[in-house]
Amino acid sequence: MTLKVSSVSCFRSGYKIIDNISFELKAGQLALISGSNGSGKTSLLRMIAGFIPLSFGSITFNSKEDYSNEFFILGHNLAIKDDISPEEDIKFWSMYLGSGYEGDVLERVGLRDLKKTPCKYLSQGQRQRLVIARLLSSNKDLWLLDEPTSSLDKDASIFLKEIINDHKDSGGSILVSSHINFLDNPDIKINLDNKNVSF
Fold first, then answer.
1. Contacts with 27 (C-beta within 8 Å, 6 or more apart), sequence order
2. In the chain, what are the domain boundaries?
3. Per DSSP, which regions of the chain are E strands?
4. Which of 27, 168, 196, 197 makes the best surface tag, with the fewest CB within 10 Å?
5. Which element (helix H / strand E) includes 45?
6. For 151-176, how does the pLDDT look when each residue is reduced to its tens digit (9 = 90+)?
7. 72 CB contacts (<8 Å, ≥6 apart)?
8. pLDDT by residue (tens digit) across 14-51?
9. What is the CATH number of domain 1-70+145-199?
């Protein structure tokens, strides 16, 4: 299982936002994308997800250019409907992703007592926990996480790091963009400020 990013560049509105980035993320590996605001962290993740077209280069997962059903992306737009409960949300996403509903996933993310509460009453941190529950329910090998600690308190950030490590240990691949390094020894570090990739 390999995500291969080869000589990727991207222009938007005439500006180069990603310049000749290459790396390979294999099974059981974790990569961290870092850089200042506006350096292209989110854009690179969205290019890998297929949401932004490449200007140059190529991206494949397991040698396939179309791998849209093989990853889960956690981004800034949480897409949570206010009038449904966390339990209903997870049941919907489990059905949509074809992964099967696991009743204890909301307990794992600390939302057991709120599982019947309409999502409009959840705090931003609780909404972020709900999306992490979707991540746990996704049953996808490749995780793309864009600033996943935003709105999370210290305990939730520690829990997120634990599930990232568990996914890595089980052979999954994780690509995280973050302005802070909350991870333990990423296998690959991609610094977009100086266009450096280190292993």
1. 1, 2, 141, 171, 172, 173
2. 1-70+145-199, 80-140
3. 2-12, 15-26, 30-34, 56-61, 71-74, 142-146, 173-177, 188-191, 196-198
4. 196
5. helix 41-48
6. 777 888 888 889 999 999 999 999 99
7. 97, 134, 135, 138, 140, 142, 143, 144
8. 888 888 999 999 999 999 999 888 888 999 999 999 99
9. 3.40.50.300
